[in-house]
Amino acid sequence: xxxxxxxxxxxxxxxxxxxxxxxxxxxxxxxxxxxxxxxxxxxxxxxxxxxxxxxxxxxxxxxxxxxxxxxxxxxxxxxxxxxxxxxxxxxxxxxxxxxxxxxxxxxxxxxxxxxxxxxxxxxxxxxxxxxxxxxxxxxxxxxxxxxxxxxxxxxxxxxxxxxxxxxxxxxxxxxxxxxxxxxxxxxxxxxxxxxxxxxxxxxxxxxxxxxxxxxxxxxxxxxxxxxxxxxxxxxxxxxxxxxxxxxxxxxxxxxxxxxxxxxxxxxxxxxxxxxxxxxxxxxxxxxxxxxxxxxxxxxxxxxxxxxxxxxxxxxxxxxxxxxxxxxxxxxxxxxxxxxxxxxxxxxxxxxxxxxxxxxxxxxxxxxxxxxxxxxxxxxxxxxxxxxxxxxxxxxxxxxxxxxxxxxxxxxxxxxxxxxxxxxxxxxxxxxxxxxxxxxxxxxxxxxxxxxxxxxxxxxxxxxxxxxxxxxxxxxxxxxxxxxxxxxxxxxxxxxxxxxxxxxxxxxxxxxxxxxxxxxxxxxxxxxxxxxxxxxxxxxxxxxxxxxxxxxxxxxxxxxxxxxxxxxxxxxxxxxxxxxxxxxxxxxxxxxxxxxxxxxxxxxxxxxxxxxxxxxxxxxxxxxxxxxxxxxxxxxxxxxxxxxxxxxxxxxxxxxxxxxxxxxxxxxxxxxxxxxxxxxxxxxxxxxxxxxxxxxxxxxxxxxxxxxxxxxxxxxxxxxxxxxxxxxxxxxxxxxxxxxxxxxxxxxxxxxxxxxxxxxxxxxxxxxxxxxxxxxxxxxxxxxxxxxxxxxxxxxxxxxxxxxxxxxxxxxxxxxxxxxxxxxxxxxxxxxxxxxxxxxxxxxxxxxxxxxxxxxxxxxxxxxxxxxxxxxxxxxxxxxxxxxxxxxxxxxxxxxxxxxxxxxxxxxxxxxxxxxxxxxxxxxxxxxxxxxxxxxxxxxxxxxxxxxxxxxxxxxxxxxxxxxxxxxxxxxxxxxxxxxxxxxxxxxxxxxxxxxxxxxxxxxxxxxxxxxxxxxxxxxxxxxxxxxxxxxxxxxxxxxxxxxxxxxxxxxxxxxxxxxxxxxxxxxxxxxxxxxxxxxxxxxxxxxxxxxxxxxxxxxxxxxxxxxxxxxxxxxxxxxxxxxxxxxxxxxxxxxxxxxxxxxxxxxxxxxxxxxxxxxxxxxxxxxxxxxxxxxxxxxxxxxxxxxxxxxxxxxxxxxxxxxxxxxxxxxxxxxxxxxxxxxxxxxxxxxxxxxxxxxxxxxxxxxxxxxxxxxxxxxxxxxxxxxxxxxxxxxxxxxxxxxxxxxxxxxxxxxxxxxxxxxxxxxxxxxxxxxxxxxxxxxxxxxxxxxxxxxxxxxxxxxxxxxxxxxxxxxxxxxxxxxxxxxxxxxxxxxxxxxxxxxxxxxxxxxxxxxxxxxxxxxxxxxxxxxxxxxxxxxxxxxxxxxxxxxxxxxxxxxxxxxxxxxxxxxxxxxxxxxxxxxxxxxxxxxxxxxxxxxxxxxxxxxxxxxxxxxxxxxxxxxxxxxxxxxxxxxxxxxxxxxxxxxxxxxxxxxxxxxxxxxxxxxxxxxxxxxxxxxxxxxxxxxxxxxxxxxxxxxxxxxxxxxxxxxxxxxxxxxxxxxxxxxxxxxxxxxxxxxxxxxxxxxxxxxxxxxxxxxxxxxxxxxxxxxxxxxxxxxxxxxxxxxxxxxxxxxxxxxxxxxxxxxxxxxxxxxxxxxxxxxxxxxxxxxxxxxxxxxxxxxxxxxxxxxxxxxxxxxxxxxxxxxxxxxxxxxxxxxxxxxxxxxxxxxxxxxxxxxxxxxxxxxxxxxxxxxxxxxxxxxxxxxxxxxxxxxxxxxxxxxxxxxxxxxxxxxxxxxxxxxxxxxxxxxxxxxxxxxxxxxxxxxxxxxxxxxxxxxxxxxxxxxxxxxxxxxxxxxxxxxxxxxxxxxxxxxxxxxxxxxxxxxxxxxxxxxxxxxxxxxxxxxxxxxxxxxxxxxxxxxxxxxxxxxxxxxxxxxxxxxxxxxxxxxxxxxxxxxxxx
Length: 2002
What we know:
elongated; alpha/beta; 15% strand
């Protein structure tokens, strides 16, 4: 770097910043933090220009010699006189060359690094110097300080501050200006031998310089790549010495981070590969911009263009998308298998362009000419894998050669070391050398089978294992200090002693002892290759260049010398040059497979269409039609075509069961010819038309159950709901469930008509629409349901747009967008063409409108979630719901009737060894197909395989139909598997009276091939006269299902459908229909298959696209729900867990550690034996399978003949004879199992084609009936050669194995089949891959790339572990995969945010066909119910009590009177009786005119919440709410406005004196700033003076005059204090009255409410104290306001004197509408309307207390409520006149019944009490808090203990258990519960009540209380003639005199109870009132409450009347 800025280094600020930055780096143990100085010096970098070079790039290329531009003239200073000027020496004359100093020890100062300097005059060596590491870039090319500080290691001179000066000192002799970037080239390290060697290149460029750099520096091994995830914390558990934990980089909350993985290094021609480099540039995903063209370029420039981690949007130079895959050298992201992303392009036509950009450095003249006629001569198209070094130019016939860069990508990515290994400075860990990579590649190719195709994944794993083994000790050393960051579980990677996939004898060269040199490489590679004969040829020695090697290879190919060679490896090792290599694939099978895999799936299908449409395939079809000497297929068919007049052999009349049983007992001599036995069952069956009309042909076993909701679906639906609630409950405010009153939804499905109809059918039958719309079942037609399902084609745009508009206008509706089959279209919209139909999901679901709408929630549903689990995913890991495992340790968690049988169980069946595997391949089909592939090299293999397969089906149909004469030996032209499938299909329907059969699924991805197959099979079926036997259906996703009319009629009969127009529209409705379904389309689109599916024929699916999603999707077609009863005991085998999302148990949270999933169930337990089925009508054995197949037949029988039919002879049957019933095929048990190789070698001597080996039945021992045989399950013995020509049995086999014999009475093959999963036939190549396991024990396919549109982040990833749960698997993919540029999530990165999760997005994943649709539909239902439940509330709904039987005759006010008349009201009698049902357990108040009913009120339990009757009512828009409600309108009211800070409040003390208490009372007001205008404050000090009150004359339509006081305790969350909606927005003064200890929590929940805080002494007080203080404060405030008005000159008496006392559970208010036609009706009104009406009452000042009715659903019935106003008790909601009621106080000591007591005293004081009956209040049931919940506990412990009421009191001075409960409460509770003992004469004695003076106390429901006031002029009831059964005197005052008491008469024996605060006042009261004259007292009759002295107990005395 130049000198321009060097001077700044001396500034103080810089030194300080630098110091802080270094300190931060040292303290940080994770990713290097962004240094502070980058903020000082560096700016953001410039975007890449189109040529990959940064604009304004004033930096040269590597050096002048390599640059095309002329060098800048530069004159170096002349050297000082007399100094040394020799190249390679410093001016002091000391040697600096690496070759000389390699072994010298150096003293390198701390903070300095050894660096190799490149001198233009010495290109072959480096000069050694020491440079301060601060001035060098880190491994990402960032953070290099400007300037220079270096030391000369020759002469030892130190402190060169300028690179110009230093370059002069070391004699660089430059012609251009010295720049450190250009000349400081390599890090230098000491290797294991202590020798100094060249290490990794210094990464002056960031990841973005790559485009230019790679081409120019491949020759130097300088390869760079991109940025990739923080340091992988590697831990090594102590107990697994050999296992690695390779970087499960999951942080503590389980979110993936982005780690750094360093640069790759190609070890060129150095003899020592053990070089480790410093942290270099990480490889993997950074944050690619959407297009990739703006990746940031270049290192820090001289003008310090920024180079900080944050600014780097860098990394993926995404030209893999639309450019040839040959350019994916640049993308070390992807090492997908044989997959490239998209374009064929490696076809050499594009080579010239792609090569021009990449290998510009190939020397001129070294081009390779491709010979003409290559394809025609060799019958193959060679594939060249680029390896190390540039590939020479190809010229000539380039269309016949393919070039692939997959291998090169693999090499590059496996040399990119993870940064964790370089965390501690120089280390001995290094990537594999080039030589080692080449040798391992040779080893890998050598051990591949002749038919195997190389898989890059395998090679990559071999590289990784080799690297780990060679660095085992060092890796451990690095793992020790790291701490594990996964949640308690590590991703273990086993390190096997030998590398799987490599032969044992080819052990790896031990790298650490003896490094591999370039000169050794060719002969070591040839040595390895020699073990496989000519299979792999190594061209190494005497090869001077890759061009020469390629030319030789082509020559040999043309000459035919590579006939038996599959691979040619070319290695070029020249001294002084980097080793170069490439691999040419020359095996026919391998070339074809690799060529086809270079097509994208869509291009492959286009190529097939092209071949079919241009007629290229005609020759193949003609060739297949010829059966050799057996004639021509079409000719045979024509001869068999049925004359239309001739009766079909299939339609003869059906025989009776007896005839059949007779026939079947014929002796063998009487049987038909062998061919006839085949069709015996067919001929005995009527045609379908005849069957349908026969009424008695019904099948008792047929039932369709697929619409039921299963328990596990309910569990998943609840789990979904809980996740939605969790989003709503989180503090992020992303979802406000409380604001929604209904649910609407739209289900998005792939564009398949069957999937669409299937979803509609599920939706229609689920009842969700009825639930959401409240419609009747009949109203919703299926057509109605179609409105809620959308196919994702072009029509979807309009539907989603309308949904967005609807969502914007209906903010109270929650819209759920269900994206079903979510892995289908994840293409990003910008990268998709409009006509492809892809990218729609991105365009619609990821649009800003959907993303930002607060009422749209997206639910992705998929069986294969991997593509949505990348580093850039939009779905939070906490929002993933995995389908739970139904079984845990063999315990059925959900009591399902079915068990899921999926991919892992299929795999298990291949391993169990106990039976015919359900998944197998067809060897004879494979051999025929491969022979034809060699014959037709230009045809696509799908065309060939499909043609062969359809030919097999046609021949099998002809053979099975019996129409072709036996002379034509048809069996040898088809395979055993196909014949079995066809026979089973034809004969199955014969065994059932209703002719139920099964389905055969034929999967043909190409639409054109599928249509051809359909036509071909239909023609053959027609010519054979089998149209009525089975249907052939073409499953095209773009077309509706099309079924013949006769089959439709049949299905309608089975399903009992009456509708004439009905046709089946889904495959599910084809249940039990015998048919062949040809399912086409590039991939299945979510179509569910019926349970009658028996064979899943996948023999022609593509083997090219080896991603996990693709494979599992195809296998998922066979997934099945098996009836649980028919399964054997659950036998967890070693099956795959990860193959399907077989998730955690439901209770677990989504990120908890737990023992992983269940192992796949073994479908059969090995010890199990078959039982026979004596009553079964037909034998159903397994047909023998071709014994050359590796999955040879294990003789399993399904149902076995009864003894009478099975007496067989011992001698073998000659071929001319056959049984009239099919014979079972058994294999002799033998312990030894043969390998496949032995098996084939035994069969070879016959010189018979493998595909024609026929089978012949074994016979059974005499005198032993089949029913007695129990067949064991050993490995079968292969047949000796002489016996191997066997006649195939004409069995009616149903083919797939039964876990155990079905019930004896089942004759319906459908019913038998329902209890077992379908059989799956796979291509051999896929079978081998799927059944192989990797080193972790998982199936191989789990380690494949999860999806085409993602890429691996690094080669150094661990393997998936067998013990991972689904959550851990998700975290694994989130860490180790990145989306490619055409993936919709690739743009989901925002600078500065740690995650970009969309808050309202959920992902439901579960295995295919498991029932996810049912689960999410049920979820929609319960979500709707929950929202309705949130909108509903439980209201107390109880009928008023204690109404007397006779109706009230007088009507005082007309019914529609608005306001009461005080004079009229005074004439009404006061109703003493309590009618509120909450008081049905208290003493009734005596009223002279009232006659109680005979039965009285039932005594209720103490728990008031459980017993009281409630109704669920929907909230009106005028409801009061608790803290959980926050709609937009309320935000400001509640003080949660996001634009402002939380409302500030101030605390104000308020003191007043009260005579009754005899002391000053100090209260506190908490007043929010927004409410201060309701109060007046003193001007100078701001002291609170009073609460402002309006004048009586004031009136405003938007204002309530009366302050509302709500006393509350324990209900800070649940109290209904949000009156915004109830008040309809009117301004009002609302004050919460809280206890001091609850002040903080109420303030937290209600920050914008005024609080009145009670004094500390009232912390333990009851509701009486709160009301007492409210009333007294209000009166005091009224006086203050009057005096304030007087001072202001206004009228004093005009101040508004009313307050409202409201309960904290009042939720809604109603008014009675008298004008309704059907009598009076109540409707919801706002509280504002009621209060304004009451406040407007003209004579309101005359009333002491007003109130309203309590609501009851039966409140308007009967006469009792006709009166619009009444006088009586009022509860819960009171309008109190504090002025008039000044002299009547609430009793501050009371806990219960304080309102009854207050109303009675108020009335006796002569004040008017009025209840407005036209209004009612609804009270919500709140089971938490409130003044009625007091716990009685003992003083000794805090734990509530059960203390009976008798223990509430004790004798004074006695030793007793004291209680920590207020004395008043103990007394009230004691009197309530034990009054029968205290007042025995009063029990159930209404006419003799207890006289209670001046107060009302509850004496229990049995006792009646008569209230009298002792005040003069008080209003009391007339007591003439009334005899009292007791007297209660409680705290009597001076108004009670002996004379007053003498007015009342008592029964003899009546009880007296006197209550006082202490013993002395008790005695004084007795004396003052002269009670001893009439009442007798005993000493033992004195009691106190059970309180300690300090708690001031109450005392009472009882006595009897004399």
